[in-house]
Design brief:
The structure holds two protein chains of two kinds. Chain A is of the alpha+beta class. Among the domains of chain A are: 46-135, Aldehyde Oxidoreductase, domain 3 (Alpha-Beta Complex), CATH 3.90.1170; 412-470 and 630-766, Aldehyde Oxidoreductase, domain 4; 480-617, 2-Layer Sandwich (Aldehyde Oxidoreductase, domain 4). Chain A has 19 helices and 30 strands. In chain B, helix 2 packs across helix 5 and helix 3 (111-127) crosses helix 4. The chains are: A alpha+beta, B alpha+beta.
Chain lengths: 812, 478
């Protein structure tokens, strides 16, 4: 008999369900965790560089690349004409050619590719291209595009009662609407009506690891693509379509990403496809890494939005109706904009019952890079109008904005959203009460008002804002996941699932799930790279759903194996199967305890299959886009944050002095990882709303093409007083993975409190009687502009910061 | 032949191209891929390495640097530590262990750089026998040049506060090993490394068009971002005579090789306002390599130090193939990115004028982000308030407001000899718009530049006049 492998020593200390460290933590801190660019490639591996369009919109009248071909080290030059399959890498709808063909539709679009022996040689060859363009009119203003009917996808409406039937789904439609009543009538009869407008800037993902893919031929005419992608199945599919081959010849593999944030959901495919095409043509391995400036120009970002809102409310500040219009700047193609603007619409209520409401979403086409998924997926932009309105109402009525917010929260009575879903677990009222007390909101409000009354230059602001975030892909079919679990004869367990690891700790959580179901220490369970040949047809790791979906699939697989092992053991031991369980690395049979390793060896010898698949599909969700109604979300995650800012009204510079957060993750799968998501999401959201500014010139060229000009938060921007708590004692009301809740995206929107606190500080300049307009990102420049606007509108009774009107100072 | 130690192991490389960065060599020929490229421009810190130099007391001092813009030839004879060099087998370095314990990595791509920045902080604190955790200021100063997009930094800060509690294992592998080679060695083709001033002048004579490099924190970007050839390069960093800070009656002469980090202790004693500004200039990694002279010779309109030196009325010492000369800084900037330096000439030292009794220096920078950002607006003001409350010997200079760093002479005229009262301030603010016609660009609009510069004048007004101590006038005072 072949000798069975003996188990290694296992020194388990970490209990499943707790704060296990990231499965790659040691690899990260030692530099041993490898990313694609760190892998030793074959000696003859080639590198790709791309030539980008210098025009926002132009016809290509001449494309002469002969000089490029003659440059040192160049092996191949590739254009659209060289694509054997289809020249299309659009994620949902067509519109994203891999390489420009005939026309360019944004500055930064990939036009041709150079394959060379080194990356430097490939990059050096690019400028030798002789390309003539005939510039065409470029649409660069999303509002003007909507006025001109330039959209990437049709309009959509959410409305109650049901709107005029069956919206035309044709390409001329410009927007979507969701309504929950008769918004025009509600506004007409409201005691008070306020209107506002805001421009919400986009955001660069700035994953620290730039986009990258590597392709190499397999020995059987297949190709393996190593990709830094949140969606390996899509990379597989689009590579196959570009090459004109079947899906079963392509394997896409992701070990880890150096950050994703949505930027590697659809945008990674082009790199995989081009690397694959180059590898197919050259017969050699090809690596394709975008230098940072190319990455920032060529790949999509968070949608900028232009929002308009009208709200009706009573004397107490309670909403009676709202009419909200959201214009998303989609860029030149649809990409994921259907879902992004939908999600913006779904979150136009944030945590508030809007009364009779109409929400209209527009998808503007502009000749800029096609905007894409980014943590929150439109939700953050959709929440901004109603949060602005809450502050506006408070200023109008002379109330504390927190009181206005509290009066409008969803509760058990007012719990139907404007798209018809019932909010079944409205935790937000209790959550805010708790946070209001723990953050000492009222006393601080009092102190800040007193401070501002005597402070001429520095003004303080305070704001508490809530978050309600819907969890599920709004595209129903994506709410599925698969897993493959193997137990080896030494008792070690290998799990593979469809989710990808981008730092969010998904693999750690999934290992914890499997360890918990099999009664094993975490060290026994290992996860391998995500591969499309192990678990097929996977969904993107996106929409905060990674653990919800893949964790459930892995759990199913583990349960299958557990039941199989117990069934075998029942027969082996001659006891009823129901009396058996797996715990503490053993099979427990009454008083008897059989070690896991022995159990597995016995099962193997008895020819019990030791691998299983698992599958999960989220139940109950549905949404009818023709009526704008349904239950798109399985559940909601809640949170709230209190931010205090200090503003220098002379320069617009400010500091975030203190932040208190209370966030709902149901029963946490891993409190350390969840807290990391809450804090990281908050800071990323703060960057979006404060320092991260994308700028284009008048011809549509991106000016902020690197970290020298695009400023994400640094260590010193994070409040030194940063108090983060997870809400305890509220398991998910839905039957999710151990009653946990998703945590990837919702915390990003906690940062709206920073923006609201800035408005609060600025509003103090006019004794809180005016609600200042503050577009985002609220850079020092925009803050100073808002301060000056308030001074001009209504000089405060408080001392003037501008010394010109102060009393004559004392000379020193 | 380029020779240095990498994690305690001597290594040599020949035929290294002059512009080669430390990162390219590490990840390429040295096969050490733990150090990452995030931006290739010295702005993200993912490529942070530690460079060890012998200090006076025989110990080794480590400073953090961005490998992506460090010319590898400057590593000659140095002890380089990368993230691969910290752990011993399965035993993590205290910094690494603290990072794991605090859940301080998520995607992990920035982590090696953060580990190396913290290693330098930790090593320096242990070497100096400092007990307890570093404070928030020290942590922010150490990490300001390391971007993390995942964690929100809190756990990293906590790791920084816990690393001292872990046992000091063997802290750096090459501590025991001797220096592998002299810090200067024979030139590599295209990268000249003179060891004396005379040698430097000789190289300038031979290569009058050569570019001079010290920290290279701006120059190297032309290579890393645009692949421009830079050679021939003449390196100033290995000339001991340029490493001096010489004091005389008028002030201090700062040699061309003196990095900002080395300047900090002097400024702390003599020009605290300048030090505060420096804390917002670049990052720790940049300040460890960049020099005052480089900032001036680079002649960017948005350089942070020129307005301060203009306000101080600094003098400059130029030297070269036609001999030495002195120049007032007012005469140095001749146009957009142009200076009075002639071919074959170099900026040898910058004077830091001593503040006379009663003299005040105010200097502020405005940028979108506090740390590691280029200024939108700079304003520096030096004056004496006489016993009758009048401002005398006023010098005001701005950055970001014109094609060069520039004096605000009309503003100065409004202030000179006057008591700084509200009407004086109003006239000075109005004069700003006569002195400058700034432009809109990626960092700020014309309006913001003018309004914010006026705001800084108002801040100066508040600083130079008494106000109740309970009322903060700047964010730092809150």
């Amino acid at each position: 008999m072949r000798k069975l492998i003996q188990p290694g020593t296992s020194a388990s200390t970490v209990a499943p369900g707790h704060a296990a460290p990231h499965d790659s933590a040691v690899g990260h801190v030692t530099g041993r965790a490898a990313y694609i660019d760190d892998l030793p490639g074959p000696a003859d591996m080639l590198q790709l560089a791309v030539g980008l369009s210098p025009h926002a919109h132009a016809r290509i009248t001449r494309l002469d690349l002969d000089e490029v071909r003659r440059q040192p080290g160049v092996v191949d030059v590739i254009t659209a004409a060289d694509i054997p399959g289809v020249n299309e890498v659009g994620a949902v709808y067509p519109g994203d050619p891999l390489l420009a063909e005939g026309k360019v539709r944004y500055a930064g679009q990939m036009v041709f590719a150079v394959l060379a022996d080194t990356l430097d040689n490939a990059r050096r060859a690019v400028p030798h291209a002789a390309i003539d363009y005939a510039p065409l009119d470029a649409a660069l203003d999303p509002v003007a595009s909507i006025a001109a009917g330039l959209t990437v996808l049709p309009e959509h409406v959410h409305e109650r009662p049901l709107p005029a039937p069956a919206l035309d789904r044709g390409a001329t439609m410009a927007s979507d609407t969701q309504t929950s009543g008769n918004a025009p009538a509600a506004l007409a009869h409201a005691p008070h009506v306020l209107a506002g407008e805001q421009v919400i800037g986009g955001q660069e993902h700035f994953y620290l690891e730039g986009q990258i893919a590597q392709a190499e031929a397999l020995d059987d005419d297949g190709l393996r693509i190593l990709t830094s992608s949140q969606h390996p199945s899509e990379v597989q599919k689009l590579v196959a379509e570009v090459l004109g081959v079947s899906l079963n010849t392509i394997v896409a593999e992701v070990r880890r990403m150096g950050g994703g944030f949505g930027g590697k959901e659809s945008q990674a495919a082009a790199l995989g496809a081009l690397a694959a095409l180059a590898a197919q043509r050259s017969g050699r391995a090809v690596r394709f890494r975008l230098p940072r400036a190319d990455d920032m120009q060529a790949t999509g970002k968070r949608h900028g939005f232009h929002n308009r809102y009208r709200v009706g409310f009573d004397d107490s500040g309670r909403l009676t109706g709202a009419d909200i219009e959201l214009i998303g700047n989609c860029g030149h193609s649809p990409d994921l904009s259907e879902g992004v603007v939908d999600r913006a619409m779904f979150h136009a209520d944030n945590a508030y019952y809007l009364g009779d409401a109409r929400v209209t979403g527009h998808r503007a086409m502009t000749h800029t890079v096609s905007n894409t998924a980014f943590r929150g997926f439109g939700g953050p932009q959709g929440m901004m109008p109603i949060e602005a309105a809450m502050d506006d109402i408070a200023r109008h009525l002379g109330l504390d904005p927190l009181d206005v917010r509290k009066r409008n929260l969803y509760d058990h009575e007012r719990c139907e959203t404007h798209y018809g879903q019932t909010v079944d677990q409205p935790l937000i009222g209790e959550l805010i009460e708790t946070l209001e007390a723990s953050s000492d909101y009222r006393a601080r409000r009092h102190a800040i008002t007193a401070f501002n009354a005597t402070s001429p230059v520095i003004r303080k602001g305070l704001a508490l804002t809530p978050v309600k975030f819907g969890i599920s892909f709004t595209a129903q079919h994506l709410n599925q996941a698969g897993a493959l679990l193997a137990i080896y004869t030494d008792g070690s367990v290998l799990i593979n699932h469809g989710g990808t690891e981008m730092g969010q700790g998904l693999h750690t959580k999934v290992c914890q799930v499997v360890a918990r179901e099999l009664g094993l220490p975490l060290e026994r369970v290992r996860i391998s790279a995500t591969r499309t040949d192990k678990v097929p047809n996977t969904s993107p790791t996106a929409a905060s759903s990674g653990a919800d979906l893949n964790g459930m699939a892995a759990r199913e697989a583990a349960i299958t194996l557990r039941e199989r092992l117990c069934e075998f053991a029942a027969g082996w031991l001659g006891v009823p199967g129901e009396s058996l369980s797996l715990a503490d690395e053993a099979l427990i049979a009454g008083e008897r305890r059989i070690g896991w390793h022995e159990l597995i060896q016995q099962a193997y010898m008895a020819r019990v299959p030791l691998s299983a698949t698992g599958f999960y599909a989220t139940p109950e969700i549905h949404y009818d886009r023709t009526t704008g109604r349904g239950r798109p979300f399985y559940y909601y995650a809640w949170g709230a944050a209190v931010s205090e800012v200090h503003v220098d009204t002379l320069t617009g510079e400010y500091r975030v002095a203190r932040v208190d957060i209370l966030h709902d993750v149901g029963d946490s799968l891993n409190p350390a990882i969840d807290r990391g998501q809450v804090e990281g999401g908050f800071v990323q959201g703060m960057g979006w709303l404060t320092s991260e500014e994308l700028k284009w010139d008048e011809a549509g060229h991106l000016l902020t093409t690197g970290p020298a000009t695009y400023k994400i938060p640094t260590c010193g921007d994070v409040p030194r007083d940063f108090r983060v708590q997870l809400l305890e004692g509220h398991p998910n009301s839905q039957a999710t993975l151990y009653r946990s809740k998703a945590v990837g995206e919702p915390p990003l929107m906690l940062a709206i409190s920073v923006w609201s606190a800035l408005r609060d500080a600025i509003a103090s300049l006019a004794d809180y009687r005016i609600s200042p307009r503050l577009d985002t990102p609220a850079t020092p420049e925009r803050v100073l502009t808002a301060c000056r606007a308030l001074h001009e509108a209504e000089p405060s009774t408080a001392p003037e910061p501008d010394g010109t009107t102060a009393d004559a100072p004392l000379a020193k | 032949m380029l020779t240095f130690t990498l994690n305690g192991r001597p290594c040599s490389f020949d035929a290294v191209a002059p512009e080669t960065t430390a990162l390219a060599l590490l990840r390429g020929r040295a096969g050490a891929c733990g150090t990452k490229e995030g931006c290739a421009s010295g702005d993200c810190g993912a490529c942070t390495i530690a460079i060890g130099t012998r200090n006076d007391r025989g110990g080794r001092h480590y400073h953090s640097a961005n490998a992506c813009i460090t010319p590898v030839h400057q590593l000659q004879g140095q002890a380089v530590v990368t993230v691969e060099g910290l752990a011993h087998g399965d035993g993590l370095h205290p910094v690494q262990q603290a990072m794991v314990d605090q859940h301080a990595s998520q995607c992990g791509f920035c982590t090696p750089g953060i580990v190396m920045s913290l290693f330098c902080l930790d090593h320096e604190r242990r070497r100096r026998g400092l007990a307890g955790p570093p404070d928030d200021d020290a942590i922010e100063a150490a990490l300001g040049g390391n971007l993390c997009r995942c964690t929100g930094y809190r756990p990293i800060r906590d790791a920084a506060k816990r690393m001292h509690t872990l046992p000091a294992a063997q802290l750096a592998p090459e501590e025991a090993s001797g220096d592998p080679a002299p810090e200067t060695a024979a030139d590599s083709a295209g990268f000249h490394r003179p060891a004396t001033r005379a040698d430097l002048i000789e190289r300038l004579r031979q290569h009058p068009q050569a570019r001079l490099i010290a920290g290279g924190t701006d120059l190297m970007l032309a290579h890393t971002l645009a692949l421009e050839p830079l050679a021939p390069l003449i390196d100033l960093s290995a000339i001991p005579e340029l490493q001096h800070i010489d004091e005389d009656e008028a002030g201090w002469w700062i040699g061309a090789g003196v990095t900002y980090s080395r300047l900090e202790p002097l400024l702390a004693d003599t020009h605290p306002a300048f030090l505060q500004l420096l804390e917002r200039l670049g990052s720790r990694q940049i300040r460890n390599r960049a020099t005052l002279s480089g900032n001036l010779a680079n002649a960017s309109p948005i350089g942070d130090t020129p307005p301060v030196l203009l306000a101080l009325g600094a003098r400059l010492r130029l030297n070269g193939i036609h001999g030495a000369r002195e120049l007032a800084i007012d005469d140095f900037f001749t146009g957009y990115r142009r200076t009075a330096l002639a071919p074959g000439e170099y900026l040898e030292a910058v004077q830091l004028p001593r503040l006379q009794a009663g003299q005040r220096l105010l200097a502020w920078k405005l940028s979108k982000r506090r740390e590691d950002d280029i200024s939108a607006v700079m304003l520096a003001l030096r004056t004496t308030v006489d016993d009758r409350g009048r401002l005398v010997n006023v010098r005001v200079a701005c950055g970001g407001m014109a094609a060069t760093p520039q004096r605000a002479r009309r503003v100065e005229r409004q202030l000179e000899g006057r008591v700084f009262e509200a009407s004086t301030l109003a006239r000075a603010r109005a004069a700003l718009a006569e002195d400058f016609a700034p432009i809109d660009d990626v960092r700020a609009s014309r309006e913001y530049r003018l309004n914010a510069a006026a705001g800084l004048l108002t801040r100066a007004f508040h600083q130079l006049n008494t106000h109740p101590a309970a009322i903060p006038m700047t964010l730092e005072e809150v």
